[in-house]
Amino acid sequence: MKNIFKEEILNILLFLLIIIVPLQTRYFLSIYKIDNIFFEYGTIAIYETDIYIIFLIVYLFFYNLKNKLFKFNNKTKTFSILLILFNLFLNLSLLRSINKNSSIYFNIRFFVFSCLAFLLSFIKIDKKYIKDGFICSSLIESIIAIYQFASQKIVANKFLGLANHFPYDPGTSVIEKSDGRFLRAYGLLPHPNILGVFLVIGFIFLCIKILQGNIKNKYSSYLILGIIFIGIIVTFSRLSLLLLLIFFIIYIFRHYFLKREKLEVEKFLSIFCVLLSIFLIFKDLIFTRIIDSRLNNISNYERKDQYVESVNIIKNKNNFLFGIGERNYTFYIHNANNVKGVYDLKPIHNIYFLSLNELGIFGFITFIILLLSPLLINNDSDIKLVYFILLVSGFFDHFLMTENFGIFILMLFIGIMFSKQYKLE
Questions:
Q1: What is the phi-psi region of residue 276: left when phi exceeds 0, alpha when psi lies from -120 to 50, beta otherwise?
Q2: pTM to 2 decimals?
Q3: In which band, very low, low, confident or very high, does the pLDDT at 278 lie, cut at 50, 70 and 90?
């Protein structure tokens, strides 16, 4: 029998993982409802991608065992301790949970992703496969998103994990103008904002490859970049546009002010022309999304209200010390204010406040150390930049701590950045 525990096979498996992870196909073990309406944050399900992830965890274990990679140094020891402590605080939060089933479900899911990140930290990963995986996956999602926006409908498909979304359905993300409501693209993900952040990852990796000249065909690369940018646009995610702006500012500052590299004017102008031409096509809808509108005002008011609720939770001494239980923020708010309908029950759009609310100060400190520690490691600068952008997104959305897809992306990047034999440029 041939040796299947080779670096080439491992890199292909990781590439495929990134391609399929947007799939939201799942089998419901328990459906939670409030006022007879489906409630996501109390629902328990097994995702189709879980099967592949479990397979990959088993493969990684034997890969490390076969290649004798289970060797601890200070970096892997620190990472192991942080993972153990954070998982410990997650389980301790059960003592404060209103809905213990929801907490247990999240804890098991986070433990599985922790195992994946832990096993990744010992191996040698070719970063090219990771970056190309995000670029290819972003291209696929962008094509789906463009079709959804063009057709102005998303038809339910159990094999792809899609629910029905139409512009005039309650709870559907839309842009509202005087001449009607326009559906924002979801791709295969639960929300346009999540899709937008995911597409930003692929966009950044491809943009850096173009700027650094690491492409085989510049015309196809610019075409793919344009398609991904259109995908970002049709999500109409303000957060995604902000993240792109932050990326360009950091990239220019790092390469042309700190490193004193020569400015690639031609490449920058080419990228700028591609982005500007696409932006101008959608400018009316984009400005509607950015400037004041009825839906924007409602969204801004809800977010301000969430911060007031979050601070009130923290003011309680017991909540501040021990939290209210993982994945229990919405249940706590519902109990405190049962006037709120199911569509108004959302976690605070800030993973840092959310972790403080649900885990208490000790769990929060461990969480922050776990998130920041990869930035202190000498590893691939492009992946470090994308990871930093992800952390910035955590100030404006909660999906990195509440959605299966978000937790996976977060732990995947942490595991890669802690990788023991990471290839540097």
A1: alpha
A2: 0.92
A3: very high
